[in-house]
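Please, is this right?
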Amino acid sequence: MAITYLKKAIKTPQTGTDETRKIVSDMLVKIEAGGEEAALAYGRDLDGYHGEAIVSEETITNAANTVSDQLKDDIKFAFDRVTKFAEAQKASIQEFETELSPGLWAGQKLIPIETAGCYVPGGRYAHVASAIMSIATAKVAGVEHIVACSAPNEKGPNPAIIYAMNMCGADTILSLGGVQGIAAMAFGLFTGKSARILVGPGNRFVAEAKRTLYGRVGIDMFAGPTEIAIIADDTADAAVVAEDLVSQAEHGTDSPAWLFTTSRQLADEVMAQMDRHINALPETARNAATTAWQDYGEVVLCDTHDEVVQVSDEYAAEHLEVHTGRNQWYSDTLKNYGSLFVGEETTVSYGDKCSGTNHILPTKGAAHYTGGLSVHKYMKIVTTQRMTREANREVGQAAARISRLEGMEGHARAADVRLRKYFPGENLG
């Protein structure tokens, strides 16, 4: 049994973390101190945008007039499927109350988060689908106020992104990107409504800003830069595998693409084809994919399917495709991934754009402990408790004894005072 790296990455998802962390930390400090003007200044310097932060109704209307009917139909197609899936997720968890012992009831309530900040990448590519994934899902959850932001260029925000944000139900749209956009939503700049949770994919600076702010606000997860892993054996089509790897590598120069396989022949064929598929891309995507594959691409050859699972679960890839003759076994056995795409017939690209599952997913190993964005991320699952006076007889005595064992006399006396009140003369507390 052996695991062999036929191609080993020069860099890892953690490369450059310290430098990124310092840049982001400095920016957040300056924006919090300088407020709205500081955020706008970063927008001018980094994006060349000199307009207002809050997107006006006029701009929203103009955006709708700019977007073609076909694109509107496509956005609606994606919106319908993402919404339907989010509704099914919401229905999968319920409020309840159960009697744990006579007179003691405990339950759970589902409370939507008040304000959500949804980040939609708009730099290298116009990520219309990210607006749908984050905003539509928040709407289904019942979030009271949804703030969405995206990076503009010197002419302003992308019309298709603005149209999608508005159609999905964003209450406030900000023409700010990067760290300044994240900061504006977290600090409540321009709206007076501080986001209680920040969601959305982004580059390493956006991801780091979310990480830094975590605790002051909630976040969906560490999301970005994007990753893809493909599990394949000798039944897989090398051209399809290569194309799918390239499809994610085009996101950016730091987007890992990994192949885990039991077939040396397939591995060799995929590696031989990568340059051809990359070179066929338009310039922006080609430049990104070239560097991503060179620096972050890996091909891992395993002797057994069990070894493939071992490797894949350790990587815990954001997106994981399975192209094998035993897809169901892999689906049943794999544990760590953001989202699973089973069989050649589906692809990460479908999930990224319109098929229904959410494309805001954990990266950098976070899939070891969390899944992707769901309607549940926008909802607090809180507990409730109520009980009768009679139930205090049993619960109060047990609580007092445990408290004194722990040395917490105040806790014990909170039980005692009830026992004396409810059961006078019984010497229970």
Q: What stands out?
A: The two ends are 65 Å apart (CA to CA). The chain has a mean pLDDT of 95.
